[in-house]
Design goal:
By secondary structure, the protein is mainly α. 68% of the residues lie in helices and 0% in strands. The chain has seven helices and no strands. Helix 1 crosses helix 4 and helix 3 runs antiparallel to helix 4.
Length: 186
């Protein structure tokens, strides 16, 4: 894979837009995560927008990671501080993994959803202790995990819509590989 200037600039543009979107999201997350975990669970999928758009528009390895690196750097001034870089890279890498498994040959919408849900499941398991989920009623635990899944599905869907509209404008022409007819319906 060649890293062309156009590819890098496209990742930087999507990353900058994602970073600006995540600036207020990091402030909101810092306020609600410890106090209102159910609201945080419903809100968590917003971090998926950038990597979904980058992968769906550019359809090349590394697009999500580079995009989220830029977004993380932009978010250093938030309560997350330098950890914003690590968090955003974690999301970018996680989204890339689903496509890496297919050797970047499958770009169907279902793979975006499966990858996003797998990441949110992994994140929910790792966040179990932080949110004291075992202290919550079983129904609240179910709502927490359900909200995380719904958030992942919603923001993945929104990312695919944005990517489809960007692709329709021709912004990725010459950057992304030519689409096959079966992929044109993204």
């Amino acid at each position: 894979m060649r890293l062309t200037t156009r590819f890098l600039m496209a990742c930087a543009a999507i990353g900058a837009a994602t970073g600006v979107l995540l600036l207020p999201a990091n402030f909101v997350a810092a306020a609600i995560a410890p106090t209102v975990p159910l609201a945080y669970a419903a809100f968590l999928g917003v971090w998926l927008l950038g990597p979904v758009v980058a992968l769906a528009v550019l359809r090349r390895p590394g697009a999500a990671v580079l995009t989220m690196l830029i977004a993380g750097i932009i978010n250093i001034p938030t309560p997350a501080g330098p950890n914003a870089i690590v968090t955003n890279l974690m999301v970018g890498v996680a989204l890339e993994l689903g496509f890496l498994v297919t050797l970047y040959r499958i770009w169907k919408p279902w793979l975006y959803y499966v990858t996003a849900l797998a990441f949110e499941t992994f994140y929910a398991i790792t966040a179990y202790t932080y949110f004291n989920i075992d202290d919550m009623a079983v129904a609240v635990q179910a709502v927490f995990f359900g909200l995380m899944a719904a958030s992942a599905v919603f923001f993945t869907w929104l990312g695919l819509i944005v990517a489809g509209r960007l692709t329709a404008t021709g912004v990725a022409r010459g950057i992304a590989p030519a689409r096959r007819r079966s992929e044109a319906s993204l």
